[in-house]
Amino acid sequence: MSAGPRIVIFGAGSIGCHVGLTWLAAGLDIRFVGRPSVVQAAADEGACVEGDDESHLFAPMDLVVSDRPDILADADIIALCVKTTDDLEAARAITAHARPGTIILSLQNGVENASRLQPLLPGMTIVEGMVPYNVIRPTPTHVRKTSAGNIIVARNAVLEAALAPLKSTASPVEFVDEMRAVKWSKLLLNLNNPLNALSGLTLHEQLSDCAWRRLLATLQSECLEVMSAEDIEPAKLGPLPPRLIPHFLTTPDWFFNRTGLKLQKITRDARSSMADDFAAGRRTEIDFLNGTVVGHGRRHGVPCPANETVVDLVKHAECGARKSWKAGEIAELINRRMAGGAS
């Protein structure tokens, strides 16, 4: 048993399970709060985590997984991995069970996590983090990392000490002084989530097609204009400077497929988390992704017709409308919105 601080992963979904199991493999004291199906699977089968050319198996006795939030009472650190749409419910559980002053490490999508969570958790210490990679979950407790990258977290002395054992592993955590630029750069990449969901394709299939990449480049170009209006210089998270990514996306298939897909190490079975939401009939995080671009664009008078179109399509899909589209059809809808002067 680790003598370090106890970390509870609140939200044992794909990301939560991958993060928690990876940290557990490194010797950290990890507990999980998840759905009853995850609790039962862990009790019956144990768990498996894969990524960065490593895999780790856990027997049921190695895991502490509960569907009851009262285990938050023993947490020194809570890694918040629930969907941003579930913040209010999660905050109520944390307030009811966790000790005042507990560190809440937000590993969620979105760029305004701290400002959204702090009013909900006034007695807690909120620290922002960012998970740059994609995860798939073949079973409730079998998770596999399907793209490149390591977690980035805002500097915090307690967290740096707690996560120090990860330095010698294939999954170190990077600590930075300024998270705002990091979060917006992650948002730039996450703008593809709805496109992947609407395509019905795997990420590899979708990004192998220049028509889909052109759409993504358009979404990102709008986001970069909004960033300029916000006076944000995006952080470099991969091999390319963020402002060059839209240009790289529009290169011919023969070139991009030999370079871009390999650089990101995207596996052939990877899908976006929003594609998983579509499949499960869950509410998506579109308001915190492309919806954020639209909202900030309106604040600064920056037109974002492509992101507006994608937000509309996802919201209609959530209400039971059409979920599967071709890239050309979405491009035509964007062109119509632009011709109509919508912003």
From TrEMBL:
UniProt-listed Enzyme Commission number(s): 1.1.1.169
Alphabetical keyword list: NADP, Oxidoreductase, Pantothenate biosynthesis
Reaction(s) this enzyme catalyzes, per UniProt: (R)-pantoate + NADP(+) = 2-dehydropantoate + NADPH + H(+)
PROSITE patterns xrefs: PROKAR_LIPOPROTEIN
Highest taxon of source: Bacteria
GO MF assignments: 2-dehydropantoate 2-reductase activity
The Ketopantoate reductase N-terminal domain, residue ranges: 7-154
Domain spans labelled Ketopantoate reductase C-terminal: 179-317
Entry keyword Ribonucleoprotein: no
Pathway assigned in UniProt: Cofactor biosynthesis; (R)-pantothenate biosynthesis; (R)-pantoate from 3-methyl-2-oxobutanoate: step 2/2
Record-linked NCBIfam families: apbA_panE
Function as written in the Swiss-Prot or TrEMBL entry: Catalyzes the NADPH-dependent reduction of ketopantoate into pantoic acid.
Family note: Belongs to the ketopantoate reductase family.
Protein name: 2-dehydropantoate 2-reductase
Species of origin: Rhizobium aquaticum
Taxonomic classification: Bacteria, Pseudomonadati, Pseudomonadota, Alphaproteobacteria, Hyphomicrobiales
